[in-house]
Amino acid sequence: MTIDQHNDVEAIRQLKARYFRLMDTRQWDLLSECFTADISALYEGAPRASEDLPRDIKIEGRDALVDGIRTLMTGAKSIHQGYMPEIELTGPTTARGVWSMFDDVRLPTCNFKGWGHYHEDYVKEDGRWKMKKIHLTRLHTEEEWL
Amino acid sequence: MTIDQHNDVEAIRQLKARYFRLMDTRQWDLLSECFTADISALYEGAPRASEDLPRDIKIEGRDALVDGIRTLMTGAKSIHQGYMPEIELTGPTTARGVWSMFDDVRLPTCNFKGWGHYHEDYVKEDGRWKMKKIHLTRLHTEEEWL
Amino acid sequence: MTIDQHNDVEAIRQLKARYFRLMDTRQWDLLSECFTADISALYEGAPRASEDLPRDIKIEGRDALVDGIRTLMTGAKSIHQGYMPEIELTGPTTARGVWSMFDDVRLPTCNFKGWGHYHEDYVKEDGRWKMKKIHLTRLHTEEEWL
Q1: Does the N-terminal or the C-terminal CB of chain A have fewer CB atoms within 10 Å?
Q2: Residue C100 — φ and ψ, nearest 5°?
Q3: Beta bridge partners of A77
Q4: Tens digits of pLDDT across chain A (146 residues)
Q5: Cα dist. B61→B16, B131, C61, C111 in Å?
Q6: Stretch C27-42: mean pLDDT
Q7: ipTM (interface predicted TM)
């Protein structure tokens, strides 16, 4: 990689760090800036408030995604962690990455814990890297209904 | 960033890695070298040996900080982890950073677990980066009294 | 470090990320490519299927190592995570590193959790970094026999 490419990889690492931190500290406006307007997200084995809800969640678009996260997190505590990024630049303004992850979401109705991997696409818009596609796969999840 | 700045960011990442590893493996003299003499540390929701002790700990100065950590860790097992550093260089010899974190401290009187973020200032002294300010905020803590 | 050295450090970080991900997703052929043919591995406090088995496992050679991991993981769920790499280049084609780690291995007979550090040697063969020596030390392990 060139020095510019190292800068891109580090910017993407910090983008994902902000995604987790802004979600867990409920900073929705700043979280929104992590995504492209047309983001596509598929979370397998997502936290859910009721056993009647589907295990997998698919959301299209930045506003719908932030709204969905905000709604889920209302009244909840959450901890999200990412590890060991494998970032690959695929062009001057495109990249993809894999992150190992853990989430611990304590909803009023369910204590949820999950482990898995994020598979993501990133694009650089006006000099800033954003998340364009998120696909969360799971190694294991646990639901303790309250 | 320039290549020198990448070197600085990597040095700061490894500084924090040593902080955690030297604490958990009880290498107090080497741990001391991670701090400036005038370090200021504020740990919110810190592990504590008794419910009578305050939840937050503020310590000024390298010797007092290492003494405080050593005293707390006597007879304990500890695991400290940091994730997803957001390091920002603010000058040739100054930087700040945020780390997601987890600590698991098993004191004789209490099993403690915590999740949160370190907000830190770093300075470069004689070519080596050191921690000058530590502020630990919490997402969640758990105390199991024995 | 030079830009080439930064490339080497990043390649080693991604090597270890693949090691964990390929193990947890059971991709044995790709996992095998992470190791030199003569890899030497010593896992202290390893997961084990029976209390009669030794706590520490020493394995020499790539094929034996992959076979050993595959056998242990049959019928199990596993989660492996690495944090805070301290990578040090020791020559143009040699390096060593320390990683903080956590593993959660759910065998049919035992739920195992462990925390510790990987101390590793790496070599660059035909332009690709590989793991040549693994030594896992432990801060703490837990075995829940089923």
Answers
A1: C
A2: -70, 150
A3: A106
A4: 999 999 999 999 999 999 999 999 999 999 999 999 999 999 999 999 999 999 999 999 999 999 999 999 999 999 999 999 999 999 999 999 999 999 999 999 999 999 999 999 999 999 999 999 999 999 999 999 99
A5: 18, 11, 49, 43
A6: 98
A7: 0.96
Nearest-neighbour CA in chain A from C114: distance (Å) = 16
Q: What is the CATH number of the domain that holds C125?
A: 3.10.450.50
Strand ranges (DSSP E) for chain C? Answer: 35-43, 57-60, 77-91, 94-106, 110-125, 128-145
Range of the domain at C45: 3-145
Q: Which residues contact A123 (CB under 8 A, 6 or more apart)?
A: A36, A93, A94, A95, A129, A130, A132
pTM of the model: 0.97
Q: Which amino acid is at A37?
A: A
Contacting B residues, span 3-62, partner chain C, CB-CB under 8 Å: 3, 6-7, 10, 13-14, 16-18, 20-21, 24-25
Please tell me the total count of domains within chain A: 1
User: What does the alpha-carbon distance between residue B118 and residue A96 come to, in Å, rounded to a whole number?
Assistant: 28
Q: Where do the H-state alpha helices sit in chain A?
A: 3-24, 28-32, 62-73
Taken in order C47, C50, C51, C54, the sign of the CA dihedral is negative
